[in-house]
Amino acid sequence: MDKIIIEARVNELATRRGNPHVPFVPSEIISDGIACANEGASILHYHGRKPDGEPENAAEFYLETNAGLRAGCDILIHPTLGYVANETDAMGRFAAVEQMMKSAETAPDFAPMDCGSVNVDWWNPDTNSFDTTELIYKNSTGTLMHFAERIAHYGLKPYLVSWNVSFTRLIEQFLKMGVLKDPAYICFCLTDQIIFAGHPGTPAGLDAHTAFLPQDFDIVWTAVNYKGDLFLLTEKIIRAGGHISIGLGDFAYMDGSRHLTNAEVIAKVVEQARSLGREPATVEETRQILEMPEVRIGT
């Protein structure tokens, strides 16, 4: 069977109340990235965080983190554009990447495009009500086209996130227009427990995503379960030829009463994938599978 791409999603906006191992500051993310690479992850996704866990969108955070990762391992770097924590215009949201691209030591390998807009308010299951009521993750068609142009300009690989079928359909139109080129790397974002913008983290929820894969283009897909346990679906994903994006940023993974580290989560995925006949893709193999272009620095 084909090699499997494993991405470590190490922190997102997760707190340490669920798992104390969630990394916040650059040194912690760098350490986690190296440990995850050693266990078999070929991609690292992270969000900028302050020491108290609040979002950090300053370019300096990403420059320090990327430089440390580059010095410590060869893992492919996939930073965030800020999600709802960075509500500005398209140029402002991409500004940190523009800064990262000034040096090979700080350049990422991917830049994300969440290809649509959704309500992302947080549900409180204890009170059966929403804790927030005004959170909208807004990604207009024009904003996404700006991202796609800048990503192509720098030779980065677009990391295309689909929260529901409408996102995938927009990706297909972008492919038809030539705004995106295949092979397209699409992450199906399932959501559970406290956020419901995506398909549920169930076999049916995943099937609803894969049923709408563009048929006329080369598609490589991975899956994440934001705020849900992806291990409920990993066997299905692995057998279906998909790839895995997982980590403490999405779910407070435990082994009984023991909190797992990001590296231990990756090790579990690798063990399961191997038992099902799929070896983890190395960084170079991941580049080949995704036909990743050559990054252009400082242009």
Can you offer a commentary on this structure?
A hairpin with a 4-residue loop joins strand 6 and strand 7. The protein is α/β, with parallel strands linked by helices and 299 residues long. 34% of the residues lie in helices and 18% in strands. Helix 2 runs parallel beside helix 3 (90-100). The chain has one domain (6-290): Aldolase class I (TIM Barrel, Alpha-Beta Barrel), CATH 3.20.20.70. The longest helix has 14 residues, at 26-39.
Basic shape: globular
Q: Termini separation (Å)?
A: 39 Å
CATH homology superfamily: Aldolase class I
What fold name stands as the CATH topology?
Answer: TIM Barrel
Tell me the number of structural domains: 1
Strand elements, count: 14
Helix content: 25-40%
Radius of gyration: 18 Å
**What is the overall number of helices?**
9
Secondary-structure class: alpha/beta
Largest sheet: 8 strands, parallel
Which blocks of ≥5 consecutive residues have pLDDT under 50?
none
Biggest sheet strand order reads: 3-2-1-12-11-10-9-4
Q: Estimate the strand proportion.
A: 15-25%
**CATH domain class name:** Alpha Beta
Q: Can you name the CATH architecture?
A: Alpha-Beta Barrel
Order of helices and strands: EHEHEHEEEEEHEHEHEHEEEHH
> What number is the mean pLDDT?
95
